[in-house]
Design a protein that fits this description.
Layout: H1 2-12, E1 20-21, H2 26-32, E2 37-42, E3 45-52, E4 57-58, H3 70-87, H4 89-96, H5 103-123, H6 138-150, H7 159-178, H8 182-195, H9 203-212, E5 225-231, E6 234-240, H10 243-255
Parallel strand pairs: 1-4
Antiparallel strand pairs: 2-3, 5-6
Helix pairs in contact: 2-3, 2-5, 3-4, 3-5, 3-7, 6-7, 6-9, 7-8, 7-10
Bound molecules: nicotinamide-adenine-dinucleotide and zinc ion (ZN).
Zinc ion (ZN) binds next to helix 7.
Length: about 260
């Protein structure tokens, strides 16, 4: 949150100052501090105002993670799992069995996650195609995050917790739409439920979440567009998904 807000303020104060990011949460290390997106929420809609502007430098010291609460570590892990799904089987296999207590291994995976994000951003800085894959699980994830934020009877979710649910849903939709392998969908679901508690969604929740999809920045001409996967590392952007399929995905999530 601090690198988004700090980057936004620095980029707009007196028409812009240079800034350096020093992330202290896992999520900020592997994702938010890299790539130059600086957005803030408006009301309860995610990232409605912002700029794309790269920091001069990102300075990471993993010792900060020694004091980070476990659920915050898991929240960052969601983005690392996402890097696995969008990038390669090799990284997915390594990251799904991550041992946070093994400092060397953990640091190597953090480094590799940053490399994956950096490589994607460098190839497609303006998010015309490849960079959209970094939004995997985020279309429904952001809507879930916003919905929980504005619902008094729901506990606020951490960004990674919402994205984790969004990735299970997107992977089910990927299987139904592009034949994403069923056994890999199970593997992803199993991995995500190992790190993240299952959230409950009733019919009214799902309806409200679907209504929030209209605020997604990736939409075009009033159509909600998803990033889906044909397989690990093999993506398809700008996919139109029916509401019916979204309901089926929530059924899959509930019954897994
Ligand atoms: N700009 C991007 O590209 C991008 C990418 C991914 C996520 N995000 C955004 O990032 C935000 C979430 O970021 P976050 O997970 O860092 O949340 P956060 O900044 O709210 O930090 C999480 C919590 O951890 C605490 N904390 C941070 N470092 C700590 C440390 N070393 N020890 C103990 N406590 C510590 C914070 O005080 C806070 O309570 C979301 O709003 C999401 O939209 C942005
Ligand atoms: Zn994210």
């Amino acid at each position: 949150m601090v690198t988004d807000l700090g980057g936004f303020v620095a980029s707009t104060f007196k028409r812009g100052l240079q800034f350096i990011n020093i992330p202290t949460s896992l999520l900020a290390m592997v994702d938010a501090s890299v790539g130059g997106k600086n957005g803030i929420d408006l009301g309860h809609i995610k990232n409605q105002i912002g700029v794309i502007n790269l920091p001069e430098m990102v300075l990471i010291d993993t010792d900060f993670l020694n004091t980070l609460p476990a659920e915050q570590i898991a929240s960052g892990l969601a983005e690392m799992l996402k890097h696995g799904i969008i990038h390669s089987n090799n990284y997915w296999e390594r990251v799904k069995n991550i041992a946070v207590s093994n400092k060397n291994e953990f640091e190597t995976l953090i480094w590799d996650s940053i490399e994956i994000k950096k490589e994607i951003v460098a190839k497609d800085p303006l998010e015309k195609n490849l960079r959209k894959t970094l939004n995997y699980g985020h279309t429904l994830g952001h809507a879930i995050e916003s919905y929980f934020l504005k619902s008094p009877d729901k506990k606020n979710l951490l960004h990674g917790e919402a994205v984790a649910a969004g990735m299970v849903l997107a992977t089910f939709i990927s299987m139904e739409t592009y034949g994403f392998p069923k056994e890999t969908l199970f593997d992803i679901s199993k991995t995500i439920f190992k790190y993240f508690p299952k959230q409950s969604f009733d019919k009214k929740d799902i309806e409200a979440i679907i209504n929030l999809l209209v605020f997604d920045k990736k939409n075009r001409n009033g159509q909600v567009l998803f990033v889906l996967m044909k397989d690990i590392g093999n993506y398809k952007i700008d996919c139109v998904v029916s509401n019916n399929l979204i309901y089926n995905a929530f059924d899959y999530y509930k019954n897994f």
